[in-house]
Each structure stands twice: as structure tokens, then as C-alpha cells.
């Protein structure tokens, strides 16, 4: 290799290294001369929510349950004497209505009338026999005064002489005859079977010409003045009720849009539990269940399942929240003063079907009713129409206690949202 070739080879190697070194040095100088860009905090996206205000709920607790309509009075009629059925009451048919004292069944009474006549004759004979014995006794007493006092007669002998056993026997015969007359009259009365109370006929099994015997079933009556509602409810609910004396509102849906409504009174608690659901049971009485006193009322139906709203004991110092505002672990999501999420535990006084009663929560609290997929305490919240809500709140405070409503403005292409009250439970 010549000297020129060695020089060219050295130049080829050194020249790129020199260029790289100069470029790296320039990059270092420029990097030191450049100022650092300003740092920006990450932007926080506010979660849009809707809120409500707790509603004051001081007053009686509401206990809701299901009940079954059952008869308050039910009797199975049976014949007490033998006789041929001569007549059947007009209302004594299934579904018929009868009043107390109405004729249901009339048996042939001729045999029993003859028995009364025979018993009356026996009474007359017994009365005559007693008077005869009393006359004989009067004669015996006069004779005893003449000779009896001089003799040495015992007490038993004196009683026999004065015909006292005969008098006792005659009196017993008269008592027996009178008892037989009373029995004949009672049998005569039992040939007429009348309604023992105002009732509806559930079933009947008689016809004219049929022979009725003692114990023969004639029909079944259900009292129409009052029916009972047998209500099943959890045993824990009993402490909220006044038994007896509570007030109940009964609702029966007929399936075609019509609704039967009645007021009832709590009578008593049954001593056992419902065998099917192991729940406590109480009896609620409903007067005039058929609406006989008011023809505009729909009648209740026996055996139907009804909704029962029971007015319970008075509760003080509570507010009501809808069930949808209750979160996990008995907490609620509140809007803090700086519109950040506060997860607050609740002191729940009572749980009802569609609401919970809470102690210690201010009526001015803003309770989030919207769903938040990942709630974190302190997260920023966005309230719809917050400025309008604040203005309306200030106007309400100056003008009176009227509720303020906040309307959510719909985005383009979005259906208008429902109005959300900021003063109360919707």
C-alpha cells in the first residue's frame, strides 16, 4: 500500500467520525440553550348528575303487605228435626242475599203441631191430678188433727198420712208434662229455618219435597256486614303497627282497569305464622264489603288477594329518600359545597317499599339520583342548569316554600330529559 492510499483510507474513516462528533456537540449546546416547556395540570372531566332534595316525612309509618279476603262469619246450616221440605226462601240460592230473620227452609210442621196438642193435654191431666191430690191432702190434714196428734206416729208415718208422697208425684208429673210441651213447641219452631244474620248464600242443597233429617246439610251462609282481610307480613313490621286499633287502606285490582278500595281497622294478631311463608298474620276488618249501603262501590271478592296499606306508629325527625337514591352499604351520594361528590353513610330509621326514612340528613342536602359508573369521593360533579337552579332557589327562599324545579336542557338530537325537582322526593 502506498502512502497516498493510506492517506485516503485514513480520511475515509476520520471524516465521518468528525462529522458525528461535531453534530453531537452541536446537539448538546442547543439542548442546554432550549428552555423547558411549561407544565400543565391534567384536565378533570366533571361528571354530569341530577339531584333531589330530601322530603320531610314526619308522620305515621306506612306498612304495605298482601292479604286475602276471608269471611268474618260463616255457618253451615243443618236440619235439627225430621220433616219434608215444603218451602224454600226466595233468596236461599247460591249468591243470594238474605237478611236476618228471612225464611230459608220450611219443613212440614203438622206432626209437631199434633205433638204440641198432645203435650198440652198431658199438662192438663197433670194439673187435674195435682189438684185432686191437694184436695185429698186437705182432708187428710183435718183427719190428722182429730186423731194423729194423740197417736205415737213417726215423721215418715205423718208424711204418708198427709199424702205428701202423692203430692210430690203429682207435681213431678206436671213438671214432666210441661217440659214435654216445651220440647214439642221447640221442635215445632225448628221446622222453620231462618237466617241468623245478614248473609250471602255460598251454597245450598235443598229442594221442595226432599226429606230433611237431623244433621242433614242445608247450605252455607257468609255474613255480609263485615269481612276480614288476613294480612301476611314480616314479623319485624309488627313493631310499627298498632294492634288493635290501626287503620288500613285496602285495594283490589279487578283486572280490567277497575279498582275496589275500602277502609279497614286492625282487629288482632293471629297467634301462629303463615305456614306457606312463615310470616306473621293480622286480621283487618272491612265493614260493608259488598257495598250494600253505597251502590256506587264495587264489592270485594272473597278469596281475592288485595294490597293493604297499614298506617303505623308516628315517626319524628326523619326525611324520605327514594329507593333509587340509596347506595351500597346504606350510603348516599351528596353534592358537596364545591360541587364535589361526598359519599355519606345514612342512619336509616325505616325501609319501605318505595322509599327509606333517614335520620340526621338535612332537608337542604343535595342527593344525587343519577347513576355513576365509578364513584370516587371528591370527584367533580356537573349539575344541569346549576345557575338557573341557584337563581330559582334564591327566589323560592324570598317568596315562600314553593318547590324549585331544574330542567335539563337536551343536547341536539337528544330527547328532552324529565324535570328534576331540587326540593323534594319525586
What attributes does this structure have?
six-stranded antiparallel barrel; alpha+beta; rod-shaped; single chain; 426 residues; 27% helix; four-stranded antiparallel β-sheet; Elongation Factor Tu (Ef-tu), domain 3
Task: Provide an overview of this structure.
There is one protein chain. By secondary structure, the chain is of the alpha+beta class. Among the domains are: 51-57 and 317-421, no CATH class; 63-72 and 221-314, Elongation Factor Tu (Ef-tu), domain 3; 109-190. It contains five helices and 26 strands. The chain has helices spanning 3-33, 110-147, 155-161, 164-189, 386-399; strands spanning 47-48, 51-52, 55-56, 59-71, 74-78, 83-88, 97-98, 103-107, 192-194, 199-204, 211-212, 217-223, 226-233, 247-253, 259-273, 280-287, 305-315, 319-322, 331-335, 341-345, 347-351, 355-359, 367-368, 381-382, 405-406, 420-421. The strands form eight sheets. A six-stranded antiparallel barrel has the order 4-13-16-15-14-17. A four-stranded antiparallel sheet has the order 3-18-22-21, with no helix packed on it. The longest helix has 38 residues, at 110-147. It is rod-shaped. The N and C termini lie far apart (101 Å). Residues 391-426 have low confidence and may be disordered.
